[in-house]
Design goal:
334 residues; mainly alpha; 2 domains; 11 helices
């Protein structure tokens, strides 16, 4: 009866959460009645099951009938994922703007409280609208072009052989992993684009903040910021795919490998940009004695950067290999 379970799963996954339990019971009873009428007193065969499922038709069309409507900007296959991603992005944007505003308040206090409150709400509302708009546009395009994210490709004529497999626990992707990745990337986008000058060394005098020594040279950083933004966008795309599909398969594993390669190339190009680092940042470490006066701080820093590049490369390689194994193993077990 696995094919029956797969059919029921293919129908109810397209329905709103609150309808799934009732419709699953109704559909299971309907299939049992149809099999009973067909087989009478004998045991149902695979042919009987296939005939009943063919009579019920394409799970997507049956789900449409249960919903009672078919026109939508973002369809039921993607709506739950869209809503989840929208909540994540909005929460991350609100937290990021709040964090950046608080840091800026303590580093460079404004002339009046009204000024910082007005600036905060102005930035927050603008960022929230942009986040909502971009997430909605992306999912609307996915719906319009019928991109098969989290759903099987449409066939000219449906048959039970097209039913999706039941979720594999070993290949399943925990939503929390993808959610954390999206939140981290969104926060990084906000901080790097609005408060990059606040990333650095904070020095204090008599218990109060005296200055911030930025890590980056402002002009050079701004010139290569698009590389960083593209890298973070690639990371968000990867996490969205993981969240939408929900399980590792060959396509997702190969896509993960390709996106990891792109991310590494962008990361290496960004971090090795000449003149990216602020000279005052290195002078500070020499002044406090953590770097010997005769040593070249930039040389030591470049060695650390080389080590970081190697670590990132190994991490992405391990991630790619592990998930390729999961994807091909899950595909081969079908």
């Amino acid at each position: 009866m696995e094919k029956v379970e797969r059919y029921i799963y293919a129908v109810i996954k397209r329905l709103p959460e609150k309808q799934r339990n009732d419709i699953e019971k109704e559909l299971r009873g309907l299939i049992e009645d149809m099999l009973g009428n067909r087989t009478r007193d004998r045991e149902a065969t695979d042919g009987d099951i296939e005939a009943v499922l063919l009579e019920l038709g394409d799970p997507a069309e049956l789900a449409d009938q249960y919903r009672g409507k078919k026109k939508y900007l973002i369809g039921p296959d993607n709506f739950d994922t869209y809503l989840l991603v929208l909540k994540i992005v909005i929460a991350a944007v609100a937290f990021g703007i709040t964090l950046a505003t608080l840091i800026a308040f303590f580093v460079t206090p404004p002339e009046s409280v009204i000024e910082i409150i007005a600036g905060y709400f102005g930035s927050l509302i603008s960022a929230l609208f942009q986040g909502f708009a971009w997430v909605t546009i992306v999912f609307a395009l996915i719906e319009h072009f019928e991109v098969p994210i989290g759903k099987e490709m449409k066939e000219e004529e449906w048959s039970p052989s097209h039913l999706p497999m039941l979720p594999d626990k070993e290949a399943a992707i925990k939503p929390s992993e993808a959610i954390f990745g999206i939140i981290f990337a969104v926060l990084a986008v906000i901080i790097f684009n609005t408060a990059e000058h606040l990333i650095g060394i904070y020095t204090f005098s008599d218990g109060t903040l005296s200055r911030v020594i930025p890590l980056f040279d402002h002009d050079i950083f701004r010139s290569v910021l698009p590389l960083l933004n593209i890298m973070l966008a690639v990371g968000i795309t990867k996490e969205l795919l993981k969240l939408a599909i929900g399980k590792w398969n060959q396509g997702l594993a190969l896509g993960n490998l390709a996106l990891n390669l792109v991310s590494f190339g962008l990361f290496a190009a960004f971090i090795t940009t000449g003149g990216l680092w602020n000279d005052a940042f290195f002078v500070y470490w020499v002044d406090i004695g953590l770097i010997p006066a005769g040593a070249d701080p930039l040389t030591l820093w470049n060695r650390a950067i080389t080590g970081l590049i190697i670590v990132v490369a190994l991490a992405l390689l391990i991630d790619s290999i592990v998930n390729l194994v999961k994807g091909f193993k899950a595909q081969g077990s079908r």
